[in-house]
Design goal:
This protein has 707 residues and is of the alpha+beta class. 43% of the residues lie in helices and 19% in strands. The chain is built from 19 helices and 26 strands. It has a four-stranded antiparallel beta sheet, with no helix packed on it. The protein has a four-stranded antiparallel beta sheet with strand order 4-5-6-7, with no helix packed on it. It is elongated. The protein starts with a helix and ends with a helix. 46% of the residues are buried.
Length: 707
């Protein structure tokens, strides 16, 4: 390795470039920005203002926060539904006055005052909802009009009844408790805000009406086409916003025991800024109540902090305007360009220098020399199949295979002409294996490990494994389960080819060539799935050794086969038994003579081997060229190889004509025949093996003779 290549190896293999793309794909990254802004805001004002975090200061601030959070929660729901509510300040103020008027002037009970406050909020919310939802008026202009009308009405009422409120002698222990008392260190308003936030969050994420709100906010036309009552959903978001603002108005009435010209002033701007700064999209359908609350804390801390530092109202308004403009710009630009950024950074190739290999060309004289025997194979299901990646036969000689349409097809013995859909799983059934009870086990791409009983009952066995908390990559979900086999004790060993890409993105994984494949085991006794081995380049075929004490598995992009020991002094360890092959290994299965069959899905080429030593070139290729011009591994030519327990190559065969089986992903020996499958094929091959045991079957090899 030259000095330049050594530098490339250090640069691309040691620097985790892929983590940037992984982080940007996570949902929590949308929460990370407002959370960091919250931490910075609290830390800044906490260090500048003396006594900022004192208990008395916090209690007063949290009372305001409880009232403000109520309004922000309502605004968040409206925005998630694709709308905007500029009238929340007026509703807040009118609800406050309604409570004050009923309690102090009419001298009615505090509960009647609460009812009056709620009535004011619900009426205005219903008006907004009817105009925007049912009459389909512009939300911005409509709520601006109701804001102006509501504010004017409030100013008239306050001017008219201000003296009567001041002269009132009405008192209530309940009012004093709501306005001034604390419970477990927090004010009543904060507890109510927390309860409302939790209930709203659950409703949005776990209930049908909540899903409808998000669907409408994401796309009203699509929501309508899906049968969602869009107008009613929009109407209810504004009613809910009015309800939240009325609760906030009632709480401030209890705290201040009155209402003045400044009540709710500029509250709509503050609430809107809080929601947007927290990460709630103005376009609708994206955000959460938690984000809105984070924004509420940021905005309230900012405004109160500036006031305590001696800055006036004008400065506060200017800061809010700057925050709103920045948040809107980030929201719009990020939403528009996120996929472009991901396309630029997600694929992060690494350096790999492949070892020299022997030739597989005809006449080369090497153990890997391919001949043309597979071209003579008979075909089964020609034109009826699409993508039989793996094939397997049962005790009754019936043949099974998966298709890219999500079905497992069964061909009936002895001529394999008649067929039926044995089971519909969905996804893409890949590796197949029978357990002792006759259940058909299948790895299903992007879905997990499944079982189909003899009476065709489909059951999901596993879709995830234990999460490695030290890894940014989400390695809990099974993204590309590929092949499986069953041990004598019933445990199912299977491969997950890559943790970063789904099955249909195998080409991206080959170009990146990062070691993210793994070997896993599913235990039917307790239903657990565990990762046994990690950090392999596209783990693929897996096969139990004849004695059941070890297994073989393929590492496709590295052109290697490994042996993992289940018992004995090497238990729990793996060793490479075949390396630097000229072909990319796929499924592995037992042979009748005590050896093992291995499929080659494609052949190495000098051009792709060279590209693996130039990760910067592969990175530029994925960013600048259309996908049909990328340099891929050659999967147009493959074959079948037989190897022994020690990894020695016994024989190799192929289809040099390319007419029937140029690419091979699986093969299964059964009663003297080799059944051949291919993920890009439209048939299954049936080849007569010279000298093979005509009575040997795989089910008998695993589970003994048929009872």
């Amino acid at each position: 390795m030259s000095f330049r290549e050594r530098l490339q190896s250090w640069r691309y293999n040691l620097v985790p470039d892929h983590l940037v793309g992984e982080i940007l794909t996570k949902r929590w990254t949308d929460n990370a920005i407002p959370f960091l802004a919250l931490v910075v805001t609290l830390a800044t004002f906490g260090s500048i203002i003396p006594g900022f975090f004192k208990l008395t200061s916090l209690q007063e601030s949290t009372r305001q926060l409880g009232e403000f959070s109520m309004v922000v929660t309502g605004m968040t729901v409206v925005m998630l539904g694709g709308g905007i509510d500029l009238s929340v300040g007026s509703i807040f103020a009118l609800s406050c006055f309604s409570a004050v008027y009923v309690f102090f002037i009419l001298e009615q009970s505090i509960w009647l005052a609460l009812a009056a406050s709620l009535a004011a909020g619900l009426v205005f919310g219903a008006i907004n909802g009817y105009l925007v939802g049912y009459l389909r008026l512009r939300a911005f202009l409509t709520t601006l009009v109701t804001f102006i009308f509501g504010r004017a009405l409030f100013d008239i009422l306050v001017t008219t009844y201000a003296a009567d409120v001041q002269l009132s002698t009405a008192t209530s222990d309940v009012l004093d408790f709501i306005g001034d008392s604390t419970f477990w260190g927090l004010s009543v308003s904060v507890w109510l805000a927390i309860i409302l936030a939790i209930v709203t969050h659950i409703a949005l994420t776990r209930s049908r009406p909540g899903w409808h709100v998000l669907a409408v906010g994401g796309s009203r036309r699509s929501a309508h086409n899906a049968g969602i009552r869009v107008r009613r959903t929009v109407f209810m978001t504004y009613v809910f916003s009015g309800f939240c603002a009325s609760i906030g108005g009632f709480l401030i009435a209890c705290r201040l025991s009155g209402a003045g010209p400044g009540t709710g002033l500029n509250l709509e701007i503050m609430a809107l800024t809080a929601a947007v700064v927290g990460g709630v999209s103005l376009g609708g359908g994206r955000g959460s109540v938690i984000k809105g609350l984070m924004g509420a804390i940021i905005v309230l801390t900012m405004t109160n902090g500036l006031i305590r530092m001696g800055y006036g109202t004008g400065t506060n308004q200017m800061v809010l305007g700057i925050m709103l403009a920045m948040a809107v710009t980030i929201d719009i630009r990020w939403l528009k360009n996120r996929h472009k950024v991901l396309n630029e950074v997600y694929v992060a190739p690494v350096y790999l220098k492949m070892g020299a290999t022997q030739s597989a060309a005809p006449g080369s004289g090497t153990p890997y020399e391919l001949d043309n025997r597979l071209s003579a194979a008979d075909h089964i299901g020609l034109g009826e199949l699409e993508g039989p990646e793996d094939v397997i036969l049962d005790r009754d000689d019936h043949l099974y295979c998966g298709t890219r349409h999500g079905e497992i097809v069964r061909f009936f013995a002895p001529d394999y002409v008649k067929s039926e859909v044995f089971a519909h799983i969905g996804g893409f059934p890949l590796g197949l294996a029978f357990d002792k009870s006759g259940n058909l086990i299948s790895c299903v791409g992007a879905m997990g490990l499944y079982s189909v009983s003899p009476d065709r009952e489909v059951k999901r066995l596993s879709a995830e494994t234990s999460r490695s908390w030290t890894s940014i990559v989400d390695d809990a979900r099974l993204r590309d389960p590929n092949d499986c086999d069953v041990a004598p004790d019933g445990r199912i060993y299977f491969t997950d080819s890559t943790k970063r890409y789904d099955a249909h993105d195998w080409a991206l994984d080959s170009i990146e060539n990062r070691a993210t494949g793994r070997l896993l085991v599913y235990d039917p006794k307790d239903g657990s799935t565990k990762t046994l081995l990690d950090s392999y380049r596209y783990t693929n075929g897996v096969c139990m050794a004849h004695d059941g004490k070890s297994l073989f598995f393929a590492e496709s992009w590295a052109c290697r086969v490994h042996r993992y020991w289940l018992e004995g002094p090497k238990a729990g360890t793996a060793e490479c038994v075949i390396r630097d092959m000229p072909g990319y290994p796929d499924n592995i299965n037992r042979a009748s003579d005590g050896n093992y069959w291995m499929a080659w899905l494609g052949m190495r080429t000098p051009s792709f081997d060279l590209s693996l030593r130039h990760p910067d070139m592969r990175k530029r290729m994925t960013r600048r060229l259309p996908q049909d011009e990328w340099l891929f591994p050659n999967i147009n030519t493959g074959g079948v190889v037989k190897f022994n327990e020690k990894g020695g190559i016994v024989e190799a065969m192929g289809d040099l004509t390319g007419g029937a089986h140029p690419m091979v992903t699986s093969m299964r020996e059964h009663k003297g025949f080799l059944f051949v499958g291919g993920i890009l094929n439209n048939r299954i091959g049936r080849y007569k093996i010279s000298g093979a045991d005509p009575n040997w079957t795989s089910p008998a090899s695993y589970w003994g003779a048929k009872p």
